[in-house]
Amino acid sequence: MMKKNAAISVALLSASFMLTGCQRPPAHIDIALIDSGQTALAQFSKYDIVNHGANTPSEHGTMMMSSILGVNSDSQLDPASLTMHSYDIGDAPSASDIANAIEAAVADNARIINISLGVRRPHAEIEKALKSAKDAGAFVVAATGNVRSLAPDYPARYDTALSVAATDANGECWTENPCDKADLTEAGVDIPVSKSNGKVVEESGSSIAASETTRKIVEGILSGRIKDASKFESSQLDG
Predict the structure, then answer these.
(1) 161-211 pLDDT tens trace
(2) How far is CA 181 from CA 64, 105, 156, in A?
(3) What is the pTM of this model?
(4) Which of 32, 51, 69, 84 is most buried (CB neighbours < 10 A)?
(5) What is the pLDDT of residues 80-139, one digit of tens each?
(6) CB 169 within 8 A of CB 187
(7) For the chain, what is the largest distance between any 2 Cα atoms, rounded to a whole number of angstroms?
């Protein structure tokens, strides 16, 4: 894992943890997944998942849910320690869809918000929603997008989100996303995820790198490794 912009990450983590006065590991955390809908797989049945919106089953949302929960990894999140909020904004959301979902996640007291999608142009509504999240102490993790050498998508390009790009098992940048323009890189190549039919397959992309990062941040919060932004290092995500 490679830290790309410590100043941005420290500021974001400050909003998330220091402003909430978190001195000891919390017993429970609310996580938001802003994506397409997800299938109610047997792997997810023991988790408290609150669906917002139509929740039309979709491959992308299902894969991101499986990655965040870690159901196909050696670091599965404890069902008793979290509530997952799934905001279905479809496979081709608008900037307004993203912004409205961020605002809804903040209203639902989500502490970590995962956004493994984006749009190519800046939008005032998204920027405003991210500020609301920061002011409320919510931490936003966003995928850069599989845009090769182009600048990351929005909301990842805003300073009020932690942008994440994918690397392979050797730490080399995945060529379909812009690692040099991301705040953080995380393993996102050939990662086992669950599809809508329950089959486990290996997929790659910045979307998965972001969701893997979200899971590691949640693990860090629950274990107490991540609690003081002034001392945060990317190594804390590796436990």
Answers:
(1) 999 999 999 999 999 999 999 999 999 999 999 999 999 999 999 999 999
(2) 22, 27, 10
(3) 0.89
(4) 32
(5) 999 999 999 999 999 999 999 999 999 999 999 999 999 999 999 999 999 999 999 899
(6) yes
(7) 43
Domains of the chain: 2-224 (3.40.50.200)
| pLDDT score at 26 | 79
- 54: Cα within 13 Å, side-chain hemisphere: 10
Distance (Å, whole) CA 158 – CA 140: 10
| Whole-Å CA distances, 193 to 14, 152, 180 | 31, 23, 26
* pLDDT of 27: 85
CB 2 within 8 A of CB 167: yes
Show the beta-strand stretches assigned E in the chain: 2-3, 29-35, 48-52, 82-88, 112-115, 139-143, 162-167, 184-187, 191-194, 200-203
Q: Which of 41-45, 184-188, 220-224 has the lowest mean pLDDT?
A: 220-224
Dihedral of the alpha carbons of 213, 145, 172, 193, in degrees to the nearest 10: 50
